[in-house]
Design goal:
Length: 447
């Protein structure tokens, strides 16, 4: 069971979560940091880095008070409250001590890990104090990335076995997101990474099911901030979930599908506010004949490389991709013609260097301010013409790239970001038959 930050956002939410955990006698619980905490720690790190320790200290004090306040509201008896506030003071004392040792990336990562450690310690203490026994585990003892920076299910399994025995029984509670790197430094699985810890642990423990508890009722078929009549998708295949995860990092961390899919363990997305609602179940073997969902992502840049040397040449694409690899910039959508290749990226911090090196291969054109829109579902198989009809419905939009045939589950187009609201609404009425009512125009924040 993984609980996200908002599900642990205040004392009453933590009580709700405790109720859910109490119903399971055997479970492995992963906690995020309380909502807002990691964001604040990121800000603290920013001030620390720029030498502004005064501001950093102020934010840290605010966080400490927030945790203490939550403890006072959460615990009923004085002794338990004193222990909890002691935990908080102890951690923040150490944070203040670190601050004076100066900024380094190792110190930053150490700091970012505090959010999950403090939150999970408080919750474990709370559960034990109300007679729901749990064993607290330190995720740094079993989440360790390899020299490639990636965690592995086998490694986690071996480490967990050493900690909990081969067939652990009872309740365990630990942190998501945080890990050690192969040299033993504290690091993390990137923002939102608790989902990833959850599916890795689910796979390592060969769990019956991986429950991801958030505050929304599962995945929706379209963006509810833009389209009014969206509906929840009750069942998704792993392939569809993997396609959608990139767009909905707010729902599911993009990397978190593979540990579950490769081990055949279903993921159940559930809502802590409505625990009896069906949520969304992601598993293999779901048979679908229709279109499942539409999703969009803004903040996309198109890079086009045109070169006559590409014609009949081999190795051209590998030279292009090597440059993106060198600057650690993932490529998302790709289209090629005989003499040109267009790719999209959502990370633009190394764009200038990339552009310069690409210029040695051909003529380069960069267009920022774009958006990716994808349609996920059964697009290819047994549905002749479905892709053509979808594209035809987009004839009034300024479609700049089309990716089709990469998987049977996806057709993707790239359009200027100003067209996202209209394209999502138009696809909604075309695909799901609902004449989407106009709601306040809005911009989707970049996920
Ligand atoms: N607390 C971390 C974050 O906010 C990890 C997570 O919640 O998944 O990104
Ligand atoms: Mg999250």
């Amino acid at each position: 069971m993984k609980f996200g930050g908002t599900s642990l956002g205040d004392a009453s939410r933590i009580r709700q979560v405790a109720g859910l955990i109490s119903k399971r006698s055997d479970c492995f619980v992963i906690c995020s940091a309380m909502s807002g905490v990691t964001n604040t720690l990121v800000d603290v790190a920013g001030y620390w880095k720029s030498g502004n320790n005064g501001q950093a200290r102020e934010l840290i004090s605010g966080l400490r008070e927030h945790f203490k306040q939550t403890c006072c509201e959460l615990f009923d008896d004085d002794e338990a409250t004193t222990i909890a506030t002691g935990i908080v003071n102890d951690h923040f004392g150490r944070v203040m001590d670190r601050l004076v040792t100066g900024y380094s990336i190792h110190n930053e990562n150490w700091l970012l890990a505090r959010g999950e450690i403090i939150t999970s310690e408080i919750i474990a203490h709370y559960l034990n104090s109300i007679d729901i026994p749990v064993t607290w585990l330190n995720a740094l003892d079993f989440t360790v990335t390899g020299s490639d920076g990636e965690p592995s299910v086998d490694d986690m399994r071996q480490r967990l076995e050493r900690l909990t025995g081969e067939k652990p029984a009872g309740r365990f509670l630990t942190q998501g997101y945080i890990c050690l790197d192969h040299q033993g430094n504290v690091t993390n699985l990137r923002r939102g990474g608790s989902d990833y810890t959850a599916t890795l642990a689910g796979a390592a423990l060969q769990a019956g099911i991986i429950e991801i508890w958030t505050d929304i009722d599962g995945v929706r078929n379209n963006d509810p901030r833009i389209v009014e009549d969206t509906f929840p998708i009750r069942e998704l295949s792993f392939d569809e979930a993997a396609e959608l995860a990139y767009f909905g990092a707010k729902i599911l961390h993009p990397s978190c599908v593979w540990p579950a899919s490769s081990n055949g363990i279903p993921i159940h997305l559930k809502n802590t506010m409505e625990p009896d609602a069906p949520g969304t179940i992601i598993r293999s073997g779901t048979q679908r004949k229709g279109i499942t969902a539409v999703a969009a992502k803004e903040g996309i840049t198109i890079i086009r490389i045109r070169s006559d040397r590409m014609l009949n040449a081999y190795g051209f694409l590998s030279r292009v991709f090597a440059i993106f690899e060198k600057y650690e910039t993932p490529i998302d959508v790709i289209t090629t013609s005989e003499v040109s290749v267009s790719v999209t990226v959502d990370k633009d911090s190394r764009l200038e260097e990339i552009e310069e090196e690409l210029s040695a291969l051909g003529k380069v054109r960069v267009q920022s301010g774009q958006a990716i829109v994808c349609v996920v579902g059964d697009i290819l198989e047994q549905h002749q013409g479905r892709a053509v009809r979808i594209l035809d419905s987009l004839r009034h939009f300024n479609v700049k790239m089309i990716s089709y045939g990469g998987s049977r589950n996806n057709i993707t187009v790239v359009v200027p970001r100003e067209e996202v609201v209209d394209i999502l609404r138009s696809l909604n009425s075309f695909l799901f038959g609902s004449p989407s009512k106009t709601i306040e125009p809005c911009l989707i924040s970049q996920v």
